[in-house]
Amino acid sequence: MTPASAIPGHLVSKAPHFLLVEDDDTHARLVSLALDEHVPGSVLERARDGRAALVRLTRAAGLNADPLPDVVVLDLNLPGLSGHEVLLAIKSDPRLKTLPVVILSTSAAESDRLRAYSHYANSYLVKPIDFDRFIAMVRELGEYWTVWNTAPVGAVATA
Amino acid sequence: MDAGSGSSDHREDSRVASSAQPKAASAATFSVPLSESAPATADGICVAEREERERLRESEKHLRMLIDGVRDAGLVELDAQGRIRTWNSGSQRMMGYTADEIIGRHYEMLFTPEDRANKIPAQLLRKAWENDGYQAEGWRIRKDGSRVWADVAVRALHGPGGSILGYCKITRDISERRRSEEALARANLELKDRNTELEQLVYSISHDLKSPLVTFQGFLGYARRDIESKRVDRLDGFLNTLDEAAQRMRRTIDDLLEFARIGRESVPKQWVSVEAVVDAYLAFHEQEIREKGIAVEIARPLAPVWGYPARVAQALENLLDNAFRHGCQGTGGRVEVGAQARRGDVRVFVRDHGPGVPLDQHERIFGLFQRLNRDVQGTGIGLTIVRRVATIHGGTAWVESSPGQGATFWISFPSIEHASVGGDPAGAQEAA
Questions:
Q1: What is the least distance, in Å, from the CA of A123 to any CA of chain B?
Q2: SS3 letters for A104-131?
Q3: Does A26 contact B at CB distance below 8 Å?
Q4: What is the tens place of the pLDDT at every residue in B283-319?
Q5: Chain A residues with CB inside 8 Å of B229's CB?
Q6: B215 closest CB neighbour out of A26, A48, A109
Q7: ipTM of predicted assembly, 2 dp
Q8: Which end of chain A is more exposed for a tag (fewer CB within 10 A), N or C?
Q9: Phi, psi (deg, nearest 5) at residue B150
Q10: Are B83 and B4 in contact (CB under 8 A)?
Q11: Which of A18, A13, A19 is nearest to A54 (CA)?
Q12: Chain-centre distance for alpha carbon A67
C-alpha cells in the first residue's frame, strides 16, 4: 500500500537504511508504522540500547561486513549508556564520525539540545505528542535523509 | 597573678622613672623654689612625685581589676619572648588554667600540636610586631585537652628605639559562632543539593510522563484511522499497547508518589526487624521463588535496624525485588541476604549472582528513572527509593559488582547511638 502522502518513487534514489536506537517498544513501533507507510522501501533496523547500537556500528565499521546505516536515529533516555554517551562515542570514532546522527527525544530541554549539538549531533528532533505531527515528522525525516541530503562519500565506512 | 603584676610593675616603674627624669633634672636646676613649695624628703624624692607615683599605682591597680573582671574575653600580656605575664579571669574561664598554673610559661602551650609544629605561635607574634597588630582565628587547646575556636588579636608593645617590650593579646571564644556558621553552610549545601535533586526530578518526570503520551496519541491515531477505513486486524494489538502503556504510567505515578512521601514520616523511629521484613517478603513471593527455582540464603540472625518501619521495609523489599528480577533472569539463581551490626551502623546486603552492574552504572542506577535493562519489569524508581530511605536515616546505599559476577546491594543505617532521636527526618543529617 502506497498512500498519496508517500515520497514519490522517482525521487527515491535508493532504499534508505535507518538505525533506530530506542528502548521504548511502542515508540519504535510508531516510527516503524510511519516509515512503512510514508517512506516506501526504507529499512528500519533497531537497537534497544546504546551498547547494542555501538556494537552494531563498530562491527560494521571494522569488518565492513554489515553495511553502515545511512542515518542513526538516537533516543537520549536509554537504559545503561545514555544517548549522549552513544553520540559521543560515534562522533569520537574516526570511522564513524561522519555518520549522520539525528536525535529523537521527548526532551526539549535546552541542556539536552546544547549537549547534543556540542557533541556534533546532525539534527535534534523532539518527539511530537500529536499523532499527525508525529507521522509528518517521520515522513519528512525519511524524505530529507533519502531524497535531499547527500552523504559525505558513497560509503561512510571507507572514509 | 602576683608574678605577673610584679614584673609588670617593674616595667611600669622604669617607664615612670624615665618620664620623671627631666623632672628630676629641673628639680636640680630650680632647687630653691621647689624646696619652698614641695619640701624634699630625706632620700631626695619630693612629695609631689611620690603622690604622682602613688596615683599611677592606684590607677594601674584599677586597670588590672578591670581587666581581670572581663569574663568573656581572655586578656593576656606576653613578654617579648612570648611567655605569659598576666592571665585574667576570662582567660581562666575560657582555657581552664589558673593564673598560678600558667604565668611564666610560653604561650605556645595553648596551641594545637599541628600549629606548634608549624611554628604558628612565633609567626603570630612576628606578624603582630611587623604590622603593629594582628588578628587571626584558630584552634586553641584547653587544659582538659578540648579545643576551642578562638578569635585572637595581638598587639605588640613597642619600647624605646624600636625594641619590643611584649605583647597584649585579646582572645575570644567564637566556637559557638563557628558552629552556627558551619551549620549554616551545611544547611545551605543541603538546600543546594535538594534544589538540584528537585530540578532533576522535574526534568525526569516531565520526560517520563511525556513519553507515554506519545504512545497514547500515536496508537489512538492509528486505531482511529483503522476504524475509519474499517480495518480490524491491527485494532486488538493497538488497544493492548494502549492498555499496557496506561498501566505502566500508573505504576510510575504510584512509585513517584511513594518516593515523594519518603521523609514525611508520621511514625517515630523504632527498632525494625530486618528478619521479619525479609521473612514476610519471602512468604509473600514463595510460589514465584519456588517456580523459578531460586535458592535463597539468609545469614541469620539478621541484625535489627533503628529507623522508620515502613521506609526500612520499603527499601528492603525494593532490594529483594531487584535481586529476584535483575539478578535471577531465566531459571535457577541464588540470592543471599545478610544484616551486620558494626560499630556505628548496621549494614544490610542483598546479593545476587546475575549479570551484574558495569562500573560506570554503579552510581547511575540509583538515579530516578535510570534502568539497566528494559526487559526487566520496573519503573526505574526502586533503587532511587532505596537511596532516599538510606539518606533520611543518615545512612547510604551502594552497589558492589562487576559484570558477570553478580551484584551486592548494600544499605546502611546508623546505629541508635549515632542516629538522631525522634521522628524528625531532617535531624537525621546530624548523625553523619
A1: 19
A2: EECCCCHHHHHHHHHCCCCEEEECCCCH
A3: yes
A4: 999 999 998 889 999 999 999 999 999 999 999 999 9
A5: none
A6: A26
A7: 0.86
A8: N
A9: -120, 145
A10: no
A11: A19
A12: 15
